[in-house]
Amino acid sequence: MKDYLTHLYGVLIASPVALITWLMSLMVFDLATLTSAIATSVAALLTYVTTQQFTLQKYLNEHELARSEYKYIKQELKVAKGKQKRLLNSFKKIRNLNDIKLIFDINRVVRAIMKRVENEPKLFYNGLQFFHSNLDSAVNMVEIYLDLYRLPGKTKEEKIELNTARLRLLDLKRNLELDLSEINKRDYERLKIERDVLKRTEGNNRKRQLEMKEDERLPDFSKVIQEKEKAGEYIDRK
Questions:
Q1: Within 13 Å, how many C-alpha atoms sit on residue 167's CB side?
Q2: Disulfide-capable partner of 10 in 47, 51, 199, 212 (CB 3.0 to 4.6 Å)?
Q3: What is the largest CA-CA distance in the chain?
Q4: CA separation (Å) from 83 to 3, 76, 87, 158, 168?
């Protein structure tokens, strides 16, 4: 989400306005120091709020979002980031080399989904299964699995249960990958359209190249006529 940009633009615009207001209130209008400070603060605050709201509205228009939707998605992402942090911290609990790649892959897919939705908030609706179910399952299952795995004195049944849990984690990783595919679905459709357009363009270019080659092979009849006339042949020009 781009809150930091709206804040940055607000500060960049409000700062020179505040400086100009301060100088004018003292030098031009000859106001008291306290009055100048109040006028400067009011001008800076109004400029900051106006610029921030304008920048935010422009961002919402670009992404076709209402303010209520933006607030809702922003809140959901905040909650999801807390779960993502828990998942990332799970690396500290790994005691099996085979689990490193599995947990890394799960974290990588989760990070990719979060990044995509942060850049394009409306994609949140394509990942509802991820935000409302699969992310929770991933965090909880990884934490419980790693906590139990590092405990000593496991019975045979407990080891079997842990192996089963690891298989479920593999299934969960595939579910997360499906969530990512659903979020990226629109881009793949656009890629397919661009590919088809390029294919048609290449076909048209090949056709033009063939036509140009055919034209190059056609004889220049004017030169043929001139050569025959030089040879004394009669040419009917009608």
A1: 6
A2: 51
A3: 113
A4: 21, 11, 6, 27, 19
DSSP H helical ranges for the chain: 3-23, 33-62, 67-89, 97-119, 128-129, 135-149, 156-183, 185-217, 221-230
- The two tokens of residue 188 are 């793949």
Report which residue type is found at 191. L
Q: What is the value of pTM for the model shown?
A: 0.69
Give CA–CA dist 142/105, Å, rounded: 12
Measured CA to CA, the distance from residue 147 to residue 234 in angstroms comes to: 104
CA distance 2 to 55: 10
Task: Give the pLDDT confidence of 101-142 residue by residue, as tens digits.
Answer: 999 999 999 999 999 999 899 899 999 999 999 999 999 999
Handedness of CA 33, 39, 43, 49 (dihedral sign): positive
Task: Decide if 141 contacts 172 (C-beta within 8 A).
Answer: yes
**Contact in structure between 127 and 185 (CB atoms under 8 Å):** no
Residue 31, token pair as written in the block: 């106001």
CB 42 within 8 A of CB 52: no
How far is the C-alpha of 122 from the C-alpha of 120, rounded, in Å? 6
Number of neighbouring beta carbons within 10 Å of residue 148: 13
Residues 82 and 104: their CA atoms lie apart, in Å, by: 17
Rounded CA-CA distance 105/192 in Å is 27
